[in-house]
Structures are given as C-alpha cells and as structure tokens.
Amino acid sequence: MHALRAATADPVLRVRNLEVTYYTDSGRAKALDNVSFTLNSGEKLGMVGESGSGKSTMALAMMRMIKPPGRIEGGQVIVGDTDLMSLDQEGMRKARLSKIAYIPQGAMNSLNPVMRIGAQMVDAVKSHLPGEPKAAIEARCRRALQSVDLDASVFRMYAHELSGGMKQRVCIAIGILLDPHVIIADEPTSALDVVTQRQVMETIDNVQKQINAAVILIGHDMGLMAQFVDKVAVMYAGRLVEMSTVREMFTDPKHPYARALISSLPSLENKGVFQGIPGLAPSLLRLPSGCAFHPRCSSAMAMCGTTRPEPRILPGGRSVTCHLYDGEASHG
Ligand SMILES: Nc1ncnc2c1ncn2[C@@H]1O[C@H](COP(=O)(O)OP(=O)(O)OP(=O)(O)O)[C@@H](O)[C@H]1O
C-alpha cells in the first residue's frame, strides 16, 4: 500500500451526463441533471453549493448508493477504464473502497461504539481481500493509521476514547485502506473546531499525495476549501453551473451564481456588510423555466427565462452553464 502512483495528466475520473431523480409523493425531483466533469490523478476538487443543490446526491450516485425513492436515470462514472455504472452488484461492491472511497457526512459519528477501531478496519478490508492473512491485513490497517498521523495504539481503542478530529482521521484511514483512485469526502470538517478542521484537511492533503488519488471535497466553507483544492465546482439546483481552477474561481468567477457566492464571502474591506444572494434556492419540484437561477440573477436576459443553458467549455478549459457565454464557447 501507498506505493507512489505516477502522477499523470490522464483523467482518472470521468463523470458523464449523470442523472438522478427522486420520485416523491409530491412529484419528481431531478436532483442531478446531466452532470459531467473530469478529474486527473492527484487533483483535488471542492464541490460547493447551497443546501439541497445536489452535492451529496452526486457523491451517492458516484458510489451507486442512491436509495429509493431516488433512482440513477443515466450517465457514466468512469474510474480508470471502468464504468462503475456497468458493473454488476458484486463488481460494484468490490470497486467501493478499492477504486472509489466515500467518507459520508457525519462518518465519524457512525463508527461502531462497541468494536475496537482496529476490528472495524480489519472488517472493511477482509471482504475485499478474502485470501489475505490476518497479520497482513492488520499491518495494512496500522499503516493506514500511521498515514493519517494517528498513533498505533488507536488500533486497540474504542471510538469514545478519541476526539472528533481523531475519529475523522480514522474514517479517512478506512477510506484509504485499499489505495482508491478516487476519494469523496462529504463535509469532512463540519462539527469540528477551526484548528481541527485545518488538521483534517492537511491529513486529507497528505494521504492524497501519498496515493496520488483524485479527491472530491464536498463542503460549504469556500474559504477553507480555497486553501486546499485545485479546482472548484459550483452546483445549483442539481446542475453543475461552473467548474474552474480555484484561482479562476476566486479572482474571476464567470457564472453569476458563482460570482454571488464569492462576493458574499466576508472580507476586511466590507466588514460589517452582509452581502447575500437575493431570493431563495428553488424547490426541485417546481424549478423555474429556462435557467433555474434566472429569478435570482442580476445579469438575467430575456432568453434565460425560456431557454435552458447547456454546459460550455470556455477557452482555457473551464466549464460554465450560462447564456452570458453563448458566444465565446463550445459545448461541453
Ligand atoms: N430521500 C430523498 N427523497 C426525496 N428527495 C430527496 C431525497 N434526498 C434528496 N432529495 C432531494 O435532492 C435534493 C438534493 O439533495 P442533496 O442531499 O444531494 O443536497 P446537498 O447539496 O448535499 O445538501 P446539503 O448541503 O444540505 O447536504 C434535495 O433538495 C431534495 O429535494
């Protein structure tokens, strides 16, 4: 484990036209609408957007863990050269943790309280490597603990003996047990104090470098993300409205929603002024016509109320889903 993979510029993850719908009693909610993006090995992507914009749905869909009333309606999630959507149940079970690992929201509170940390880690590996001797599995687990800067003694501890930050690091250690190519961490720092948040982000950064995985960090904290990720993806009402490098996103956001998000970040210059985004996030059951953001958009044009914009790749490679850029881009 942790043999350094060669850094490549080849995409290790290609998400193509991913679609998820929740069939609720009140109607159909398209929680993921034609989402596509790619990530290279070693790249870190921050995924942001208001609550309900589809970030967790995206993670669950990539893991094929969407439960009824939700349904994956289409699309591909290609890791290396395997489309996860084409695997049978057993193939997908094996792919989880070995090709793609998921650290869910609140994972640290889901550790089994009556099982030692080591036993939980061993269990996670066992089903993937049935022929592996116990000693080798245990050694693998101890190495994983070491890579997240936890003492070897944690192997024999129970969850209640650990701090929040330590528990979150255990979850990261479990996520990297089989050297996945892609790691998705859903709000890995929520409910932690700012110092611990930083440490957890640094831990993710370190393990990501060790195994050269592509990492997707889901979160709300743009400021914290900016310090750790390479690219930022902004979700709005189930669509990916912009994806650019972190520098482009912070210095020159293109989508009006991304611009509003960036300008609502507090700064010393506008101290005391809270700049929000007017209006409310729409219900997925009653999305506005055309571009779902148009009722809140200060740059909206007549066509925005009638015609849905499609994702476009701008010169330089960033992707934007907005009619403002219709003239200067190719379809994504
Ligand atoms: N089990 C469900 N049944 C019905 N609708 C659901 C279900 N889960 C999610 N949804 C719908 O999907 C949308 C996206 O939810 P999701 O949890 O992916 O958002 P999110 O961006 O991760 O939010 P948060 O930041 O609050 O975690 C929600 O607005 C909701 O309408």
From TrEMBL:
The keyword Transcription regulation does not apply. InterPro entries: AAA+_ATPase, ABC_transporter-like_ATP-bd, ABC_transporter-like_CS, Oligopep_ABC_C, P-loop_NTPase. It is a peripheral membrane protein. It is found in: Cell inner membrane. Keywords: ATP-binding, Nucleotide-binding, Transport. Residues 15-262 form the ABC transporter domain. Pfam families: ABC_tran, oligo_HPY. GO terms for molecular function: ATP binding. SMART domains: AAA (SM00382). The keyword Transport applies. Belongs to the ABC transporter superfamily. This is Peptide/nickel transport system ATP-binding protein. It comes from Kaistia dalseonensis.
